[in-house]
Amino acid sequence: VHGDLDVSQIDELPPGRQQIKTTMLSGQQRPQAYDLIRREVAQGRQVYIVLPLVEESEKLDLRSAVDEHQKLQESVFPDFQIGLLHGRMTSAEKEAAIHKFRDNETQIIVSTTVIEVGVDVPNATVMLIEHAERFGLSQLHQLRGRVGRGAAQSYCLLMSSSRSPDAQQRLKVLEQSQDGFFISEMDMRFRGPGEVMGTRQSGVADFTLASLVEDEDILLLARQAAEKVIEMDASLARWPLMQDELKYRYERLMGGAILT
Questions:
Q1: What is the pTM of this model?
Q2: CA distance 121 to 125
């Protein structure tokens, strides 16, 4: 869509890395997840457990990072050191939690999505994502990328008790593919592309005559036509109606800023 930008694509894994085994699990299969975690930690590996909330909510029946950390440490894995990481912690507290996990002082870290980027622990081989249906596909794929950074086989467990066919279909995409481009396209199909010129990142597109998903070939032809127009007259002085439309859209998008 943004045809004036150059795009570089990296479509292969770095050398020495394996595909991450991704599995959908229901709440009834939780013992399987905990058994895998115990086996991996027993081999010296480490584990991420990701939750959508920091603390318990009265409105949402969801597990929270703070409560889950306490329960896991006291009842499920009392023999392991378990860290906690979330966005309400101070920068120093977050840095300390990450440092302990990097140094393997904590074998498991319970976290919100703050670990989505910037955390690199090659020894971590398991990620358990609670309430996986609450996340977008692209975000789940980004989270999954925190494991599989070393040579050992890694696992991503998508825990969901949702019976919604749409939720099951979305998570099945993650289970069957590790192609970030394909996953992003499917995410756009499910959530909607949002605005091309704007800030809304999901929902109905601001196109009225075409679909970003279904009409890719037509959009490529339109981009080529636009490039020819710019080559002929970048000011669009020869096409005053097009110039007026561009000015109107820009000023509406920028909240009244004048395009000269």
A1: 0.75
A2: 9
